[in-house]
Write a structure and sequence with these properties.
The protein is of the alpha+beta class. It has 7 helices and 4 strands; from the N terminus they run βαβαββααααα. Bound molecules: glutathione. Glutathione binds next to helix 1 and helix 3.
Length: about 210
């Protein structure tokens, strides 16, 4: 059976859990405690070379690190990953944009808020938001003109990009100004098999 190493609040791992659910793939979930340094052990380093979650271990024991790599591997041959090379390039463009421009400013601001450091680290959060807002604005501009990120339908790009955007408000981002993003998130969250990050969490910001 597939084995997923994740952590309770990891948005990158959440992407993989959404995809596994949408593909109906059973898996064993091993939730590490980041605060206890469980990703830093030698044993975990032997499985995940970057010592971060998510890591997926395939049925034959081979591990895959990096959420984007895991998503692409799992989605191969499914409608979530177009076969057409141009559409795939478009899709990967969104995955790279998410990792390069969007994920860190959203994720780190969120972690600081969740760890009660919003006041003490407000200058860091302001710097992160100064990076995060322009990326959100680019996403908003695209979504104001398109229903989906690629191919006019729900794909891996929507799944991957939406994860941290869904929880951006937890990092102090004011999301009310992003109407097209809000409507897109509602469409993404309504996809069959989509799962919440935490069972008791509201699906859509503000909901
Ligand atoms: N680019 C990586 C980022 C992975 C990442 O940042 N993982 C975080 C949790 S979301 C983690 O394991 N942090 C623990 C650490 O860095 O020690 C991916 O997309 O998988």
């Amino acid at each position: 059976m597939l084995r997923l190493y994740d952590s309770r609040l990891s948005g990158n791992s959440w992407k993989v859990r959404i995809l596994l659910s949408q593909l109906g793939r059973p898996y064993e979930r091993i939730t590490l405690d980041l605060a206890k340094g469980e990703t830093r052990t030698e044993a975990f380093g032997a499985i995940g070379r970057f010592q971060r979650v998510p890591v997926l271990v395939l049925e034959d024991g081979r591990p895959i690190a990096e959420s984007g790599a895991i998503l692409l591997h799992l989605a191969e041959g499914t409608p979530l990953l177009p076969a057409d090379p141009y559409l795939r390039a478009q899709l990967m463009g969104w995955l790279f944009f998410e990792q390069a421009d969007l994920q860190k400013p959203l994720a780190i601001a969120r972690v600081l808020h969740l760890h009660g450091q919003a006041q003490a680290r407000r200058e860091d959060i302001a710097r992160l938001q100064a990076e995060g807002y322009p990326a959100l604005e680019k996403l908003e501009r695209w979504l104001a003109r398109h229903g989906w990120l690629v191919d006019d339908r729900y794909t891996l790009a929507d799944l991957a990009v939406s994860a941290y955007v869904s929880v951006a408000h937890q990092g102090g981002y004011e999301m009310a100004r992003f109407g097209a993003i809000r409507d897109w998130l509602a469409r993404v969250h309504g996809q069959p098999g989509w799962v919440k990050l935490l069972p008791d969490e509201a699906a859509t910001p503000g909901a």
